[in-house]
Design brief:
Keywords: Iron, Iron-sulfur, Metal-binding. It comes from Clostridium chromiireducens. This is 4Fe-4S dicluster domain-containing protein. With 58 residues, the protein is an alpha+beta fold. It has a single domain, classed as Alpha-Beta Plaits. Helix content is 17%, strand content 21%. The strands form two sheets. A two-stranded antiparallel ribbon has the order 1-4. A two-stranded antiparallel sheet has the order 2-3. Strand 2 and strand 3 form a beta hairpin. The longest helix is centred in the N-terminal third of the chain and has 5 residues. The relative contact order is 0.39.
Length: 58
């Protein structure tokens, strides 16, 4: 099961992207992050690191 970002709460800080061990988080045009669910290994590092707590299991 992959993680998902609640984009309405995401502030675009990039913390989740920096801690992702497989590099499956990218930045969109609005600076918000998105997780490539097929590449996510569900380690949970991004969820733990997110200061806004807007990442959750999908």
């Amino acid at each position: 099961m992959a993680r998902k970002i609640n984009k309405s709460d995401c502030v675009g800080c990039g913390t989740c992207q920096r801690v992702c061990i497989v590099g499956c988080i990218t930045q969109e045009d609005d600076r918000k992050r998105v997780i490539n669910e097929s590449a996510c290994v569900d380690c949970g590092a991004c969820q733990l690191a997110c200061p806004k707590k807007c990442i959750f299991p999908n």
